[in-house]
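Revision sheet: structure tokens.
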Amino acid sequence: MNIETASNQDALDSFIAKWRQRWPEWSLAEVFVPAGQRATVLAWAALLQELGDAAWGGRDPRPGEAKLAWWAEELGGWSRGARRHPLGIDLQRLPAGWDTLAAALPALQASRERPGDHAEAFALLEPFATAAAEVELRLFGAGLDRAQDPAPGAVRASRDAIAACLLQARFFHEGDGHVPLAIFARAGEGEPTAIWAGQLRQRWPMAPAATLPRRLWTALARARLGLAEPGRALKPWAVLAKAWRAARN
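Predicted:
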């Protein structure tokens, strides 16, 4: 391994480590993922986290807008065989519709705005979640050639699961900007962020996602919403139980 290759791998490992820091449960849940897919699964998870952090992080949206503009160029380059970001080491070589994901980034940025209610929270994320579902199905869909268009039903199920996981990921960020306005109208019923966590968990999409990694992530994300702090990790016994059930679906 030459110096440049080693440096790229170190940079990739740092992004993976940042994702693992938020999701320590994955060290247990990933045993249900085929060994040959695990590196790609981690890179994809880290990419979605980077995009979400750019869209929602900080009090000033402008740095995030600039990051997403850079990512739009980067993902477009992946479709043409070019790569700059280390996450592309495992992802760029796969023909998964990166240009479609790039085109959906403005919708992810727009989801930073506070939604009116539960339905609008999902609707704001729908364009990006749909593009992400199509990529995810090409990466991990069983029996699907990456050149094929995923089945509409599979896209819908994965889209809803991805949108739900993205809404749960907002709890990692400071403040309550992701809590719908309708929650604040329920004055006296409790802390708005906790009410939103409970509502999101109660109305979680029931159709299982079409890929194994998403089913695992969905199970973990929904379970965290049942904790007093939705950003806190689950107990190991809970991780294994929920991951086992998700893997069987």
